[in-house]
Amino acid sequence: MRYKAGTLFTAMLLSAGVPSGAWSYDARWSVTGEGEDIVAIDCTDCEEELGIIIACKGKGMPAEVTVNAAASEKGKDGAVAPLTMSIDGDAFTRTAQTVEFGMIGFTPVFGMAPDDPIVEALQAGEHHAFVAFSGDVTPLNLKGAREALETFKERCGWTKTADAGTNDAGAKDAGANDASAQNPIAVATFKCAKGKSIDATFYPDDVGLKLSDGRAMTLPQTISGSGARYANEDESFVFWNKGDTAFVTEGTDDKMTFKDCVSGK
Asked: What domains does the chain contain, in order, with CATH numbers?
């Protein structure tokens, strides 16, 4: 899966050809667009100051989040890596896909479901959030985020109706939203030593794995000091991912059963 849509808004800004002096920059969140083209951004009438884009992908569907502020000059297009957003002392780690985007650089993009706790945290946060990605920490402005995200939720179909769940139609809508929340945010194939391989499908809170030995499983994301870590309940199987690399450890002795794994573009 490759991300493209959220960054189209950035392309429009950068290709507009408007001189920097003609922009009236306002460090306040805003919402623009109609229908499925709705986006929330962390500034108004901004150009290179644009830090984050939250793009609607359909009514009730997970949004695509592009964090321009965390872009790097170096990276690998299509690589997956953990991104941590810290807001008022709470840290939220998500698996992001790196997208090479022109002058902006290698930019992290991830999926955000309507019920993702990041949404509420952004609305409740004061002043700034901080994004850690690829070894760098970048601040994000939160001025006006509460109002802008509330508008975004209404226009993107994220706001629950008063009678949701009280009739058959409401139950169907709720079921559809639950299913859509499981849409993958990135996929990657890792080629490992000794001819082994791992097909990984990343979701906001877990990863689906298909191993070359025939095994398939879904693992929840767990706490990690570096990189993204996914493990089963007794931690007898652990999948580690950092950037375009990965490995697997198994058993009580943490034997590395899949090593030197690298994903292609």
From this structure: 5-180 (2.60.40), 186-263 (2.40.128.200)
